[in-house]
Write a structure and sequence with these properties.
single chain, four-stranded antiparallel beta sheet, four-stranded mixed beta sheet, 9 helices, 12 strands
């Protein structure tokens, strides 16, 4: 009898907690496979925009998550807040699953029925993926090779311009800009980067050293973690350099000769560029080999979506 009463109390408590914390879901959502190609960068979109800030330049309305012309793996990365920059050095490792999620593209548009934060929208997107794609995942922390971004001579040796102290950044964070595609301007943005022009590889506005470290992961072939100890916001112009991946491609093309060798002519001018390490050295920074815990998402199961 006593055991029965205890079980009843436990079930009541669980029901009460679930009632107090209902599952977050979108009011309406559409999922459609896309079989066409985008006509330009403006056709592409990927992101969620919550009520707690966000990029001033985003085209995504508040309270929505939108994906257009992006493979499913990028939508999953968005839902689980995996920085796209970490997906380049660890191809197939930070998000592992069947190969078709890298190829198949879906148009996903989802709307919340009430104001929701970025974190809440991501939870709703997770629920949508679970419902429509039968997605099941688990998280792991794995020790992986990494780079530590270090200031060679402390903060005074870092040769980036400090951002104006009176610049209005509001509640912007690096997360607000991770999934922006085809950005060409930094006006009104903080913690954001755009591709540079001329002698500049990338340009950042009001960025922290941790923001820069995340971006460097794209080219460094390992995740980069900030170990500079340098505080504050900076306006960054990183001189153009030869990404290691491009150097390897040029070498491969040169060895292959023939038609492949013709590609070398296109790369010759770029091969003469300095390396990433030499550019960082000019800026008073360096990369040191280390290991770091990297959060990965392992896909346990996923299916092609059900009809709307």
């Amino acid at each position: 009898m006593k055991a029965s009463r205890i079980l009843t109390l436990v079930l009541f408590a669980v029901g009460f907690v679930n009632a107090q914390n209902p599952r977050l879901e979108f009011e309406a959502a559409s999922v459609r496979p896309m079989n066409t190609r985008p006509s330009g960068p403006v056709d592409r979109a990927l992101g969620c925009r919550g009520s707690d800030g966000g990029s001033p330049g985003t085209v995504i309305p508040v309270g929505r998550c939108i994906a257009r012309y992006e493979p499913l793996r990028m939508v999953i990365a968005l839902a689980y807040d995996i920085p796209p920059a970490s997906m380049y050095p660890y191809e197939g490792q930070v998000l592992s699953g069947p190969d078709w999620i890298n190829r198949e593209v879906y148009n996903i548009e989802a709307k919340a029925d009430a104001p929701a934060t970025q974190a809440q929208l991501r939870q709703m997107l997770q629920a949508l993926l679970a419902e429509r794609f039968k997605l099941k995942v688990h998280r792991e922390l794995r020790e992986m090779p990494a780079w530590a971004l270090v200031a060679k001579n402390g903060a005074k040796g870092v040769k980036f311009q400090s951002a104006p102290k009176d610049r209005e950044c509001g509640d912007q964070r690096r997360r607000d800009h991770r999934y922006e595609l085809g950005a060409t301007t930094l006006t009104g943005h903080c913690h954001a980067f755009v591709p540079g022009t001329g002698e500049v590889m990338i340009e950042g506005r009001s960025v922290e050293m941790a923001d820069l470290a995340e971006m460097l992961s794209i080219w460094a072939e390992r995740i980069v973690v900030d170990k500079t100890g340098v505080q504050g916001l900076f306006d960054v112009k990183l001189p153009r350099f030869m990404p290691p991946q491009m150097a390897a491609a040029a070498l491969s093309a040169n060895i292959a000769g023939g038609a492949e060798g013709a590609r070398v002519k296109v790369l010759e001018a770029q091969i003469s560029l300095p390396t990433l390490n030499s550019v960082l050295d000019q800026m008073g920074l360096k990369l040191e080999s280390t290991k770091a815990p990297v959060e990965v998402i392992v896909i346990d199961s996923v299916e092609r979506p059900t009809e709307n």
